[in-house]
Write a structure and sequence with these properties.
Elements: H1 3-8, H2 14-19, E1 30-41, E2 51-56, H3 61-67, E3 69-77, H4 82-100, H5 106-124, E4 134-135, E5 137-143, E6 146-152, E7 156-161, E8 164-167, H6 174-181, H7 186-191, E9 211-216, E10 222-226, H8 228-231, H9 236-245, H10 248-261, E11 268-280, E12 295-296, H11 321-331
Parallel strand pairs: 1-12
Antiparallel strand pairs: 1-11, 2-3, 3-4, 3-5, 5-6, 6-9, 7-8, 7-10, 10-11
Helix pairs in contact: 4-5, 9-10
Length: 335
Amino acid sequence: MSDEKREITAKMNTEELENGWTQMAEGASESATLLLAARTDLGRVRENNEDKFEFFIPSTTRKLSAKGQLIAVADGMGGHAAGQIASELALKTFIASYFSDNSLSVEDALRSAVKEANSLVHETASIPGRSGMGTTLTAAVIRGRTLFVAQVGDSRLYFFRGGRLEQLTQDHSWVAEQVKLGTLSEAEAEESPFRNVITRSLGNQPEVEPDIYKRDVQEADVALLCSDGLSGVVGQGEMERVLSQNGPAESCQELIRMALDRGGPDNITVLIARIEGFQTIEGAAAGETAGSEATAGPGAGEQAQPTLSSDEEATKPQTERKSKKSFLARLRGSD
């Protein structure tokens, strides 16, 4: 079996995510009930789908109270299978790191998880044939009535409330920086040949700093995460209209269709989470099983836990340094 196959079929150990956290301090007293839907599409031009989405909803009240619920999208780069590897490694490492972090500060845990994911992708990129691999990352945590977002690259999170859609994140791209400086207009940026040049990604440098966003949430709010395969061809006003007229599953389907109808020049990924309401977390400090988990609507992701396809020789990346070295050695064919 090739190293490449092992890389892209590595299985995440969700039992460790549930049981590895031991902090007993108080967290959120409420949990949002989410209706989730997600779709990813190859598009009409690319040969590989380098996009990836994941979400993880803890089933224990202790972890749900402390860490909340996580959704994320990544868009890999590097050519051939390298981008696919980068996005998958980044998301699995990011999620494992976030849920094993004992800090009750969501912002600190998100920064630490980005650091771990960046480190693994950067070290993997040193392997022959992996040079230049990297990935974007847009991840959101909903804990209680607060939305936290970690952003690296040009995948986006849009926030929908009361019929109005806003882009909550800012792209780490050359054209976005020029617009901010006033040297390009929004219209010029959309037509620029450098619109796909990103200035920050996971794996490109030994260290990377994510942008962190935070805002309060309420019932009926919607978070839309997407790769630039959608945002690059479907306008914000069009997304707003789709979300106003459809539920999460139908919106995912319609937005993907719109991007494909316009040529599908890139991989397209859409993940939508709508807040259906809030419920009290009973006995969070005792670590009891949550009475109700978030709901995945029709057409949602393949599973509510980010368990990926496994293989008899599947390799599981770890955040610990020793395990990381062993993982990299397997990729180099040393084990």
